[in-house]
Amino acid sequence: MLVLIVIMAAIVAVAALVVTYVAYPHRGEEVPNAPWLGEAMSRAADAVPTLPTEGDDVGDAGDGLDLHSGAGSRRAS
């Protein structure tokens, strides 16, 4: 039972950090009453590898399919 309570408390803590990050540092604002928390979350977000967004120039993927225009989609007849 104790293990379940500890795991649930950890889940709630991570959820609170995610909500705080989305509400403040992700939008470029400072976390009220805890600017150190926003700085730490911004540093952590910069350190994590991410997938490129649509506007990033990542070069040719090499598969020859254009997923954005629908030209590479295949339909069963």
Give a written overview of the molecule.
By secondary structure, this protein is an all-alpha fold. The chain has a domain at 11-47. The protein has 2 helices and no strands. The chain is extended. The chain starts with a helix and ends in a 30-residue tail after the last helix.
Defining key terms:
single chain, extended, 77 residues, 2 helices
Query: Helicity level, as a percent range?
Result: 40-55%
Count of helical stretches: 2
What oligomeric state best describes the polypeptide chains here? single chain
Broad structural category = mainly alpha
Report the principal-axis shape.
extended
Please state the CA-atom Rg, rounded to the nearest Å.
20 Å
Low-confidence stretches: none
According to DSSP, the number of beta strands is 0
Question: How much of the polypeptide forms β-strand, as a percent range?
Answer: under 5%
SSE pattern:
HH
Distance between the termini: 56 Å
**Major sheet details:** none
Mean pLDDT: 78
Give a brief description.
This protein has helices at residues 2-23, 35-47. With 77 residues, the protein is an all-alpha fold.
Secondary structure layout plus pairing:
Elements: H1 2-23, H2 35-47
